[in-house]
Each structure stands twice: as C-alpha cells, then as structure tokens.
Amino acid sequence: MCLVTYQKKPVVATEDIVCFKIVRHCCDLLTTDFYSYYYKFKWYIGKLYITELSFVTGLDYYSCNFYDAISDDFYNDKHRLSFLERLVEVSDGFHAMLDFNRANLENDNRILAECLIPKGSLIFTDATGLIVSNQMIMLGEVKIKIN
Question: What is the pTM of this model?
Fold first, then answer.
C-alpha cells in the first residue's frame, strides 16, 4: 500500500494522533491476534512499533501506485491535465486513516483497529485522510458500526 501526497518530507507529530487501521485475524478463526491486512505483519495490542519511512519524490500522477480507490479518484481528477505538479509516494511505514468512516470493510475478514501515533513520530498525510508514520501502537478493535 502506498500513500501519495503533495507533502515533500515527513513532519514531526506535535501531539498524539488517533488513527484507524484495517487488520484481520490470520490462519485460524479462533485467534485473537491482529495482522496487517496486506502484509500479514503481526500486531500486539499496546506495543510500540518503530520503522523507517521510505518515500520517492518527483513523481507525476502516471508514475504512482494507487492501492486505494478514493486516493486514485482524487489525484486523477486533480492531475488529469497537468504534469507540472510533482507528487511524493510513501511506501514503507505504518499506514492508517484518520477517520474510521474512510475504511472500506466490504470484505468479511476485515477488522477496523484503533491505533495511536505517538507525539514526536514522523508522519506523512494526504488530501484524502490517509496517514503514514514511523511509529504506531495498536489499541484494539473498534466496536462501532461503520457507515
């Protein structure tokens, strides 16, 4: 999953950020373990995870990998006639969304988890409500109905 943004470099979070991540249970329906939906990274509730951010600058729309239909539609609309705007594609890092209504939970095995990005983390955000950070803590499953 990649985040595409106008933001040229990561910024430091000035406060804790609550966010949401799509996860799943893996391998056994009886397990309560959470795994990242795409890469099967195992998450332990309450544990701080730290990673490096990886990003590429100087891309135009046609060079970007969109794994998210909302982002694809947004940038496609904005860049249809212009190759002048340069974008940044963020690949490595902990990906999440800032609003749980942004989640696509069509698939039965998708679970929405609440997470925390600690103050002082490096972050990228996009114009559609997605965020990538170098640090994240999973707080637990969200027990609310998604619109």
Answer: 0.81
Domain boundaries, the chain: 3-141
Distances in Å between the alpha carbon of 102 and those of 8, 18, 47, 57, 81?
23, 14, 24, 25, 27
Buried-exposed string 32-51: b where 16+ CB fall within 10 A, e elsewhere:
eebbbbeeeeebeeeeeeee
In the chain, at which residue ranges do the beta strands (DSSP E only) sit? 3-5, 11-12, 17-24, 34-36, 42-43, 48-50, 55-59, 87-90, 94-97, 111-117, 122-125, 130-133, 135-141
Distance of alpha carbon 15 from alpha carbon 12, whole angstroms? 9
What digits encode the pLDDT tens for the residues 130-140? 999 999 999 98
